[in-house]
Design goal:
1 helix, 97 residues, two-stranded antiparallel ribbon, 16% helix, alpha+beta
Length: 97
Amino acid sequence: MLKSKTFVKKTRSGGVLKIVREHYLRDDIWCGSEVCKECKDEAPVLQEHASIESNLCSYPHYLIPDTNVVLHQVFKGFILSVGNPKSANQRPQFAFS
C-alpha cells in the first residue's frame, strides 16, 4: 500500500516547488497470530494462549524486539568480549568460538 503526502512550497527565488513524500506499507507480511482477524490464517505461528507467565504483564502478550536494539546489543557484547588488543599481532579471543 502506498501513502503519499503532497504539498507545494515557495522557494527563496519566488518559484513554486511541489514536494511529494511517499510512504510504502507492506501488506504481504502477516502477524502469524491465531487470534488475528485481519491476516490470512494460512499458517499461524504464535499461539493464542502463551504458556510463559510474567510478573510484569498480567495479560497475554507478544514480545516484538526492535532489530536495531538487538543488533546494537549484540555488537556491544561482542566488543566487550573481544576487548581491546594491545598490539596488531595479538589475536582477539572470540566469545562465540
